[in-house]
Design a protein that fits this description.
- It is globular, with a radius of gyration of 17 Å.
- By secondary structure, it is an alpha/beta fold.
- The strands form 3 sheets. The chain has a 6-stranded parallel β-sheet with strand order 7-4-3-8-9-10, with helices on both faces. Strands 1-2 form a two-stranded antiparallel sheet. A two-stranded antiparallel sheet has the order 5-6.
- Strand 5 and strand 6 form a beta hairpin.
- The chain is built from 9 helices and 10 strands.
- Helix content is 34%, strand content 20%.
- It binds dicarbonimidic diamide.
- Dicarbonimidic diamide binds next to helix 7.
Length: 223
């Protein structure tokens, strides 16, 4: 099937496609979490939850596997180098106790995916210590097991973990499509720039398309 995407239509076979929803966690999206502790306006990210939920539902209905990632660390922080933990000037650093438990620590309430986008019991959830979801995880072998060739991406933030994972995926041979209104940044200008970079030079990293364009291709309405 063809997706009405930029910079040109993308041919996609649902049988060899997976959806990756990046880091839609309370720590990034709800007040009191890590994103807010860095001084960011989390309302921007909250706004994409309904579109992301529609994309997830459409992919589930089309039989496309849904994979969720969570950016989080071990309780002893052995997988969080100072080069990551000491960046910025947050009111709460990774591992500090906050209103939703220890910030970005696996198993803590803040590290959970927001309830509206929760994984189904049979869906793969990948805890990742880095920005890219392939780094230090079993995402690569998991996708190989599924026979995946094309990845649809959603989640936050566009220019950090989403773009990093798309670049990792493209280097590994996957065709990549980013759902434009199911991704967001705390910095609207960074989102716009990331979308432009991804599809520049003939889709050098991948394609972008609105959720509705993806859903209408997955479930065409009979004329
Ligand atoms: C950030 C992410 N922005 N998931 N994480 O720190 O993009």
């Amino acid at each position: 099937m063809k997706i009405d995407a930029q910079p040109f239509p993308l041919d996609l076979d649902p049988a060899t496609t997976a959806l990756i929803v990046i880091d839609m966690q309370r720590d990034f999206i709800e007040p009191g979490g890590f994103g807010a502790s860095l001084g960011n306006n989390v309302a921007l990210l909250q706004a994409i939850v309904p579109a992301t939920a529609r994309l997830i539902a459409g992919c589930r209905a089309a039989g496309i596997p849904v994979i969720h990632t969570r950016e989080c660390h071990l309780p002893d922080l052995s997988d969080c180098p100072p080069a990551k933990r000491l960046r910025g000037a947050p009111s709460l650093r990774i591992g500090d106790p906050g209103p939703m438990g220890r910030v970005l620590i696996a198993g803590e309430p803040g590290a959970e995916i927001v309830p509206d986008l929760a994984a189904l019991p049979d869906e793969k959830v990948i805890d990742k210590p880095g920005k890219g979801a392939f780094y230090a995880t079993d995402l690569g072998p998991h996708l190989a097991g599924l026979g995946t060739k094309t990845l649809i991406f959603a989640g936050v933030t566009t220019e950090v973990c989403v773009q990093t994972t798309m670049r990792e995926a493209n280097d590994r041979g996957f065709e990549c499509l980013l759902a434009e209104d199911a991704t967001e940044s705390y910095f609207p200008e960074f989102k716009a720039a990331a979308l432009a970079m991804i599809r520049a030079q003939g889709a050098i990293v991948g394609w972008t398309a609105p959720v509705d364009a993806i859903l209408s291709a997955l479930a065409p309405v009979d004329a």
